[in-house]
Amino acid sequence: MKKRKTMKDDILERELELYRKYYEVDEENRIVRIVLHYETAEDLLEKDVSTFERPQIKYEILERMSDLVRTVPETYRSDISLEIKDYQGYDSEKLMEAMKDSIEFARYKSDKEIKRNWVIASLFTLVGLVILLVAAFLSSSSFSWMDSTNGAIFKEILDIAAWVFIWEAVTILFISPNPEKIVESSLRLRLRSLSFSKAGRNGMLSEGSSYFLDFNPWKKGQRKKAGRYLLLISGFLMIATGIASVFFLFASLSPTIQALLDGNAIENGDLSREAMIALIVSVSVLSFILLGIRILGGVAGVSRFIGRGKLQKFVAPYSIIMLIYHMVAFVGLALGGNSSTIGSWLSSGFGLVMNLAYIAGYFLDRFE
Fold it and tell me: Over the stretch 25-61, which tens digit does the pLDDT of each residue have?
C-alpha cells in the first residue's frame, strides 16, 4: 500500500524543489552542495591581523556559512565549497587549516559567551532572591513602618525589583539568542564538509583541498565542563540558602534575645537568664560560622567555574569533608538508625541534592 503523504512531506518536497533550482541536491545521501564565490583569497581574510604565512579567516565568513546551512531542510546536511578565482599565491591547504582554526575559535568564543551569561544570570537570580528575602524579613519583623502606606509601597518596589532581576536572568539564558552559539552549533550540526576550489577556463571547478568535519576532539573536556556548571549552580544555591538561613536565623532569635535583654520571663527550665543568653549566643555564633562556611564554599564553587581567585582552592577540602560527612551519616543511619531517622536525613532533600551536586561537580572537574 502506498504511504499517504503528509503536510510535512509536501513542505519538504517544496523546499527541495526550491533548492534544486539553485544548488546541487543529493537526495540519496541527504546532502545539499553549496558553492560560495569569491574574487580573491583576501576576500576571506582578516586583513588587519592576517599574514601570508598565517592567514586568518573572517568571522563573517563563518556567519554566512551558518546562515546558509540553517536554511537547508532539517533532515539534510551541507557540503560547502569556497570557489576562489585568484588565490594570490595562497595555498589551499593553508587556507583550509585557517578555516578549521576559525571554526574552533568560534567554538571557544561561544563557550566563553555562554559561561559569561551563566555567571551573570546566576548573579541576577541571587540578587533577586536576596531582595525577596529582605522583603519577607521586613514584612515578618516588628517594623511598624512596613504596615504604613509608604511601607507597603516600599515592599512593592522590592518585589518588582526582585522579579526584574530574576526575569533578566531567564531572558539571558533562555530567551535572548546567543549569536556565537548559533554559528558554532549550526556549523557543527549541519555542515558535513568544506572544500576550496578554483574555476577553470571552461567554468569547471577543480577541487584544491577538502575536509570532512570531525568534531570528536571537541568532546574532550565535556566532563570537566559539566563539573564546572554543577559547581556554579550548586555554588550559587549554597550562597542563596546560606544568606536565607542567616535572615531566618536572625528573625527567629531576635525576639527571644530582645525579651531576655528586656528582662522578660522565658520558660527555660533550670537555666538562669545569664546562662540562657550565653547558650543562645553560643548556638547563634556556631550557626553563623557554619552558614559562613557554606557561603564560602558556594563562592569557591563560583570562583572555580570562572577560573579566577584563590578561593577556588577551597572547593577540594569542602567537597571532601561534605562527602565524608554524608558517607558517615548514611552508614551510621543504615547500621544503627531507625526508618524515621533515615527518612529525616533523606528529607533534607534540597540540601542533600545541592551538596551531592557540588561534590559531583568537584570530582568531574578534578578527574577528567
Answer: 998 899 999 999 999 999 999 988 888 888 999 999 9
Give the three cell numbers for residue 165. 532581576
Q: Is the pTM of this model over 0.90?
A: no
Q: Which residues pair with 200 in a beta bridge?
A: none
Cα torsion 235, 241, 245, 251 to 10°: value is 130
In angstroms, the CA 246 to CA 242 distance is: 6
**Rounded CA separation 81/60 (Å):** 16
80-125 pLDDT per residue, tens: 999 998 888 988 888 888 988 888 888 888 888 888 898 899 899 9
Residue that is written with C-alpha cell 545539499 in the block: 32
CB 76 within 8 A of CB 121: no
Of 329, 15, 29, 60, the closest CA to residue 192 belongs to 29
Strand-pair category, 191-199 with 205-212: antiparallel
How would DSSP label each residue in 262-291? HT-----TT--HHHHHHHHHHHHHHHHHHH
| DSSP track, 137-152 | HHHHSS-GGGGSHHHH
Buried b (16+ CB within 10 A) or exposed e, 262-295: eeeeeeeeeeeeeebeeebeeeeeeeeeebeebb
112-162 tens-digit pLDDT: 888 889 889 989 998 998 888 888 777 766 566 667 778 788 888 888 999
Dihedral sign from CA coordinates of 284, 288, 289, 291:
positive
**CB 232, CB 301: distance < 8 Å:** yes
The Cα 320–Cα 342 span in angstroms is 22
Of 199, 184, 198, 134, nearest to 162 by C-alpha is: 134
Rounded to an integer, what distance in angstroms lies between the CA atom of residue 74 and that of residue 27? 13
Q: Which pLDDT does position 132 carry in this prediction? A: 85
